[in-house]
Amino acid sequence: MKTLAFFNNKGGVGKTTLVYHLAWMFSQMGKRVVVADLDPQANLTSMFLPETKLEEIWSETGPSLSIMSALSPIIRGTGDIDVTPVQKINPALWLIPGDLGLAQFEGELSETWGKCLDGKEPAFRTTSSFYRIIQAAGKKAKADIILLDVGPNLGAINRAAYPVSMPPWQWA
Ligand SMILES: Nc1ncnc2c1ncn2[C@@H]1O[C@H](COP(=O)(O)OP(=O)(O)OP(=O)(O)O)[C@@H](O)[C@H]1O
Ligand SMILES: [Mg+2]
């Protein structure tokens, strides 16, 4: 299972568009693909899903069906990551939907980054949450390829997202 992150610090250069088309292309070539939207703008999620589905995923009254639902126990401080919500786009393509709420989680990621140096277990759980959420979804889908779309910045989400392609014990 290969994981590819598409990053450029400059915005609007076509990262999301490229991820969207590559995801379809790989799935049509017979590869099993999981795409994860880690950009709080959630443009990739909007490209893949119709408006009615987006309303359901980002419902203010019902449960969230985005990546935020998997992060929820960590954010509330009640436990570890929850089951990864995944939308099936076609028989070989799955999407982990993004969420504007990721912008708020970014503050927490910033704080826990430093706490990892103190060896605090909750800090490692938070920092490695993207890695574990995405790898779990990939494993469940028996994915050949995981594609990550990230925002155009060097913030805490991206710092935690880049090493998704390698396990935390190799981050050094
Ligand atoms: N190959 C292309 N040729 C022309 N226009 C393109 C191409 N790829 C993307 N675009 C257009 O450029 C704009 C920005 O694309 P996109 O949202 O994919 O960029 P991005 O790098 O993901 O942006 P951001 O940094 O904000 O996440 C969109 O309007 C998109 O339709
Ligand atoms: Mg983008």
Structural features, described:
With 172 residues, the chain is α/β, with parallel strands linked by helices. The chain has one domain: Rossmann fold (3-Layer(aba) Sandwich). The chain contains eight helices and five strands. It has helices at 15-28, 43-48, 51-57, 67-76, 102-116, 121-127, 129-140, 156-161, and strands at 2-6, 33-37, 87-90, 93-96, 145-149. A five-stranded mixed sheet has the order 1-5-2-4-3, sandwiched between helices. The longest helix is centred in the middle third of the chain and has 15 residues, at 102-116. The protein is globular. The relative contact order is 0.25.
Summarize the structure.
This protein is an alpha/beta fold and 172 residues long. It has helices spanning 15-28, 43-48, 51-57, 67-76, 102-116, 121-127, 129-140, 156-161, and strands at residues 2-6, 33-37, 87-90, 93-96, 145-149. It has one domain (2-170): 3-Layer(aba) Sandwich (Rossmann fold), CATH 3.40.50.300.
